[in-house]
Specification:
heterodimer, A: 89 residues, mainly alpha, 2 helices, 2 strands, B: 15 helices, 11 strands, 13% strand
């Protein structure tokens, strides 16, 4: 059983700040409860298949110049630096 | 001038000189002006569309080579990047975002002289099935404006159905093209995973999502696939389809083809009208010479839980880029500590995106991954095995696209699990990478019902052939605009 504290902890880690905590926690809780159905799928011994892409299918590792200054599209920048809030004091 | 014509008829009319691209595009803009206040399919309209159409007419008149689309007005879901135009994903987070490059599908359509008539509404970041989660308000179903149009590519389906464009591009992560196609009575296509490049599609759940066309006819879908499919160095999940022509042989019928009827998709919770439409579709396919038999895919009952677990996980990671430093709105950084700034900025995500971000942090986290995320991946593997086994005996599979009829706006928005179950018939194609199509088939109480066909990977051509055959058996009423 998932607790509300666990959900709140995860939202903090995901950097999600919500006004109405209760509303979110309850709905997410309902969703997670529904996922319990996975327990009855009987897939414990199943292998997880991965998508494989061979190296030959990757494009060449080449620098392609971009003709616009992307940094100018940002809201907050100074010179060639992105302006970010200060890290925790 | 008839705005209701198919894409192929439009091309013929322009080629024959009966219609100019400029007139058709201008008339389409008028239609948007007339009906979109009521339907809200569009988030933005291309102000230069008429001018662009005029340029194409000039090319035609001067005998220059003209692209296959001949100025056809196409609407584009607002999660696909068109250079220099707003791409909001129906989110406030990207309210001012101007795409700095073209998606590959856009580049391809531009080369073929298509005109992007506007960007269309969707559930925020494609998370939803009704467009009610759009930050800019829901779209309405043209068949009855009190009802949802389906989603997340709801704006695409509405715009095709209400003659506000000739065709549209949407994206399908768990049914987001097929579901609104079914609810609005258009054709909706989810191709084999990798058939269409996702470069320039704003990421939600990369491992299963695909761009797909919504059109008035199956032939139009084949035409659109001819334009936009194929390998792309910018998306290394694309597959080489050797420039397949999806239109050729589309009318060669389905005599002798074996079609499996997926039992898990016509069981509990299905609306009787949808069930009866499915049975009719089966007998029509039989009358065309197909052999229909029951099949079972045990993992279907776990598919929605697996789908949401996997998509939430991928979304949690993909949406982490929205920190309001690289993309975002005016919200000064001064006076905030790094983490609290990002958390505050993310309040601009709507409720469904917020929920799925939390979910996406939770299900793959240490201590929970074994119960949720890894199990979901195992269900995905087993479902793929099951369906591959079925395709050894069958050429195609059939099920209703959505087990219920379109419902009223607001009816299910507060019940996440009820919304989950709308996906039950569509997520299988995404989780297994198979192509699937929704074909407008029937109506009940004035609301559309779509039938879904699935084929094995890379059998898109056969799938379109079968869909075309079924489509020819159907006569549908006109949309009551």
């Amino acid at each position: 059983m998932v607790t509300e504290e666990e959900i709140e902890h995860v939202s903090k880690l995901m950097k999600i700040d919500v006004d109405d905590h209760k509303e979110y926690v309850e709905k997410v809780h309902t969703m997670i409860d529904y996922f319990d159905i996975l327990d009855s799928a009987g897939v414990e011994s199943e292998e997880i298949s991965m998508q494989e892409i061979s190296i030959s299918n990757l494009r060449d590792d080449e620098y392609i110049p971009y003709n616009e200054k992307l940094i100018e599209k940002l809201k907050h920048y100074k010179g060639t630096y992105v302006r970010a809030p200060k890290m925790s004091s | 001038m008839n705005l209701k014509i198919s894409a192929l008829d439009y091309i013929q009319e322009v080629k024959n000189g009966n219609v100019s691209a400029e007139d058709f595009v201008a008339k389409t803009l008028e239609q948007i002006e007339t009906v979109d206040d009521k339907l809200h399919a569009f988030l933005s309209v291309n102000e230069k569309a008429v001018e662009q159409a005029r340029e194409i007419d000039k090319k035609i008149k001067s005998g220059e080579k003209v692209g296959d689309c001949f100025g056809m007005p196409i609407s584009i879901k607002d999660n696909l990047c068109i250079k220099g135009s707003k791409t909001t994903c129906a989110s406030k987070m990207l309210g001012d975002f101007i795409a700095p490059y073209d998606a590959t599908v856009i580049t391809k359509l531009k080369q073929q002289d298509a005109i992007f008539i506007g960007k269309v509404n969707m559930d925020e970041f494609a998370m939803g099935l009704t467009t009610e989660f759009s930050a800019y308000g829901p779209s309405k179903n043209p068949w009855n404006t009190e009802y949802v149009p389906g989603g997340s590519s709801g704006g695409s389906a509405v715009s095709v159905s209400a003659f506000e464009c000739v065709a549209s591009l949407g994206s399908d992560t768990g049914g987001s093209v097929r579901n609104p196609a079914s609810f609005c009575s258009t054709v909706g296509y989810k191709p084999t995973y990798g058939l269409i490049s996702r470069f320039g599609l704003i990421s939600y759940a990369n491992s299963i999502e695909q761009i797909g066309p919504l059109t008035r006819t199956v032939k139009d879908t084949a035409f659109m696939l001819n334009q936009i499919s194929g390998i792309d160095p910018n998306d290394n999940t694309t597959i080489d389809n050797n420039n397949e022509d999806y239109l050729s042989g589309i009318d060669s019928g389905i005599e002798g083809k074996k079609i499996g009827v997926i039992q898990e998709m016509i069981g509990e919770g299905i609306d009787p009208a949808v069930l009866s439409a499915t049975k009719q579709a089966i007998s029509k396919l039989e009358s065309l010479g197909a052999i229909c038999e029951e099949v079972s895919l045990d993992m279907v009952k776990y598919s929605v839980a697996a789908y949401y677990t996997i998509t939430a996980t991928e979304a949690g990671s993909n949406l982490a880029r929205y920190d309001n430093l690289r993309y975002g709105y005016d919200f000064p950084v001064e006076g905030y500590e790094f983490n609290s700034y990002i958390s505050k900025a993310r309040r601009n995500f709507g409720p469904e995106v917020t929920r799925r971000m939390i979910l996406g942090g939770f299900v793959p986290s240490a201590g929970h991954a074994g119960k949720y995320f890894l199990k979901a991946l195992k269900v995905k593997s087993k479902l793929t095995k099951e369906i591959n086994e079925v395709f050894k005996k069958f050429d195609l599979l059939i099920a209703p696209t959505v087990p219920v009829l379109p419902f009223k706006l607001g009816e299910k928005i507060n019940d996440p699990v009820a919304l989950f179950l709308l996906d039950i018939n569509t997520v299988t194609a995404n989780l297994t990478g198979k192509p699937a199509i929704s074909i407008p088939f029937s109506h009940s109480k004035g609301l559309p019902i779509g039938i879904q066909l699935l084929a094995n990977s890379k059998q898109d051509k056969l799938l379109l052939r079968a869909a075309y055959a079924l489509e020819q058996t159907v006569t549908l009423p006109e949309v009551p605009l």
